[in-house]
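Provenance

Sequences were taken from public entries as deposited. Structures were produced by running a predictor on each sequence independently, with no templates supplied. The record for Single-stranded DNA-binding protein from Murinocardiopsis flavida is shown for reference.
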Amino acid sequence: MPKSSTARVPASRVPSAPAPAPARPVRKAPAAPAAERRTAARVHDPSGHRNEVLLAGRVTAEPAVRELPSGDHLITWRISITRPTAEQRPNQPADPITCVSFQAIMEEVTRGWRIGDTVQISGSLRRRFWRSPSGSSSVIEVEVRAAQRLADADPPPGAPAGPPQPAAPPDGPGPTDHQPS
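Predicted structure for Single-stranded DNA-binding protein:
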């Protein structure tokens, strides 16, 4: 086996390199739960674009179903979202938002909704075009994927808060009634 030789380089010829900076710890954002990652992969496209809407407000126009010329059913309703006090304009304290859905299940979900009910919806912002007698028209709406009623409408002023109570006790003796002996 050949002997390897190492030549020593004089210290004057060794280039001096700056000492490496101490490594900084890399901070990573906390990992999203698995369900959230699956949802993100399904909802977002690889370009990073995102169109998600989550709103909660009061129903201001009850859901209505109409059949389009294509045969599809369109469910339409409107909700109003009160703006935070700092963001309110003098004549517009709330934002009215038109909501639509082409999903048949949404007919069932929204069937019992009444004006004043508090609801939550999630979906995507859409611009829809159609031809009308006056020419082309368009509207921006929220196309709803999921919805739920959070609370029933407040009862009208003067109405009882709970279920109706009988005005008089029922006929016959009750627990506090005494029968003559």
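The beta strands are 53-67, 73-82, 94-101, 118-132, 135-151.
The radius of gyration is 33 Å.
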